[in-house]
Amino acid sequence: MNVILIGAQGSGKGTQADLLASELGLPHVSSGDLFRQAMAEKTELGLKVKSYMDRGELVPDDLTVAMILSRLAMPDCTGGVILDGFPRTVAQGQALDEGLQKVGKQIDLVFYLEVPREELLARLSGRYICRANQHVYNINTRPPKTPGVCDIDGSPLYQRPDDTGEAVQRRLDIFFGETIQLLDYYREQGKLVTVDGNHSIEQVQKTLLDVIRGK
Ligand code: ADP
Question: In angstroms, how far apart are the furthest CA atoms of the chain?
Answer without folding.
Answer: 47
